[in-house]
Structures are given as C-alpha cells and as structure tokens.
Predict the structure.
Amino acid sequence: MLPDIEKLLQLQTADQEIRRLHAEIAELPKRMAVIEQRLAGTKAQLEKARAAAKADEANRKKFEAAIQDLQGKISKYRDQSLEVKTNEQYRALLHEIEFAQQEIRINEDRILEVMVNADLREKQVKAAEAELKAETAEIEKEKEEARRLTAEDQKKLAEWNGRRDGLRREISEDVLRRYDRVLKFRGSGLAEVRDHKCMGCQVMLRPQIYNEVRGEQLVYCDSCQRILYFDPANEPAPQPVAEPVHVKRRPRPKPDAAQAWFYRPDYGGFGEVLIVFTNAEGTATRCIYDMHSGRQLGDILNREGNYHQAFPEDFTDTAVRLNGFWEEEERVGWAAEMPSAALDVLHNDLRAAQRERGRTHKEESSAPAEQSAAS
Ligand SMILES: [Zn+2]
C-alpha cells in the first residue's frame, strides 16, 4: 500500500473520531437541560403543595376570626336584651342570637374540615420534599457524570487533534487538498475498491483505473472524486479453476448471430484485440477493443451486407469466435471503453475456448496412433 494511503487511512480514523467526540460533547448541554427540566417539575409540585397548605392556614384564621366576631355580636345582643321594653323586641334579639350561634357552628365545621385536610396536606408537602431531595442527589450524580464524560472527551479530542496534525504533516499537500475537499462535500475522502467497484459511490471503475489502483498508483474515483485504495486482504477469493476434464462443454456461438465477438491475437499493430461485428438492416458494423484495457481502437466501420461478406479480411485462422452478447443500447453506453465486467466475460470464454482447443488437438494426435495399433 502507498505510504500516503496508509497515512490517509489513519487520518480518516482520526477525522471520524474527532467528529464523533464533537457530537458527543455537543450532546451534553442538551442532556443537562433535560435533567434540569425534570428537577424544575418536582420543585413546582412541592411549591403547589406548600401553597395549598398555606391557603388552608389562611382559611382557618378567617373562620376563627368570623367565630370571634359572631361571639362578640351574641354578647352585645345579650346586653341589649336586659334593656328591652317589649316582648317583640326581646324575641327579635333572641332570634338574632340563634342565627349567630348557627353561623358559629357552620364556621366550626369548616375549621374541622380544614384540620382534617391539614394532615393530608402535610403528608403531600413532606412527600414532595423527600422526592426533591432524592432527585437533587440523583441529578447531582448525573451532572457529575456528564462533567466527567465531557472532560474525558475533551482530553481525547486533544489527543486525536494532535495525532491528526502529525499525520497531516506527513501527507503530501496535493493529496491532502483533495482529501479535504471531498471530505467536506461527501463526508469521507477515501474509498476502498472492491470487486471493480468504488465502495464510496458504488460505481464500477474503468479497467484502466482499476489496474492503476491495484498497481499502487494514487488515483481518484471518476464519479465521486474520492481517493481510491485497494486492500489485498479484502480481495475476493479467486474462483477455483475446474479441471478441464470436468469442464462443461462450452456453448457454441451461432455463426450468423446479429452480434458476434472475436478474439484476434495479432491484429495489425494493435496485437491482441477483441472485435465485435453487428448486423442491422443490411449494414455490418465493426468495432475493435484492446484485449486488456478494453479501450476502443480506431474508428467504428460500417459496410454494406452482413459482416461475413463485408469484412472477409477479418475472418482469419487465428480469429477465435467468443460467446458474449450485450444489447446495442448498453454497448453504445460504454462509449470508448468496455466495462471490466464485459471484459471478464470475454476473457473467461477465450480461456475456455483455448482449453477446449488444446483438448481437441490432444485427441486428434492420439486417435490415429490408437487406430493404427488396433488395425
Ligand atoms: Zn466513487
């Protein structure tokens, strides 16, 4: 792995950890606020219980004052009754006294009611006080824990920041600039390549880019701009190559298919190539790709007739007809480069064709000897 990539991976870890710590530290005041709010609720309940007790006390005093007032009136009526001249006046006074006595009884009942209630009120206040006390202690503990966590996070943050600064000094400036920019917009600046794909954006890589990443070059994803790296430890296990004897017979490509792929080991100055011919509406088309990079070579040619008639010079003895078909629409989408998945299909089929050819040669060369021995 490139030293810059190794440092970038460590830098990425540091950046992620720093971001996590910042988020955790920012969470703490919010947690404190929730705790304070809970405490405020309990305090309000206690205040309510206390206010109710106080109101009861005020009422009791009011009723007592009313009784005193009524008793004063009664003694005044009694004094007056000693001086009245007529029976009517006397009866009227007695009536007033009776009425006042009745009022006194009502107020006494009210006082009794308040006193019975007072026990309940006192219990409510005591319970609220106890709850507040317990909650305050609990909250102090939680606050202390939050403070401890914040201090710990701050310490870790300082350590990670130091590590990050150190790493940044060891990475070249151009690479850092790229990393920072992509990190800012995409949340990460690095992406692993697995199975020909950029794991950052899930887009298939061009074969050239894929080979460069595997060849320890510093390259960027065309689609998401992340710096790419390849970890051989995550490489998929190679497909076990079956023994030729057990290989299923390779399907025969149709000689007159509308799309026909060929391999040529010796194509002019290009060397190994893949050629695709297509027939459509009386016109044959030929397109040539580099066998290994998948890049298009030369121009696409159109000629009248089907491809056997139109390009007779291409059907040489060394040309190997391959199995492979892609819809025209998809193929046009490749533009000037085949995707590595399509390349893989054709490479695999070529290997199968070559194995098959090797076996046929062996059979041919051994067959006459056996025959001559039998005869
Ligand atoms: Zn990408």
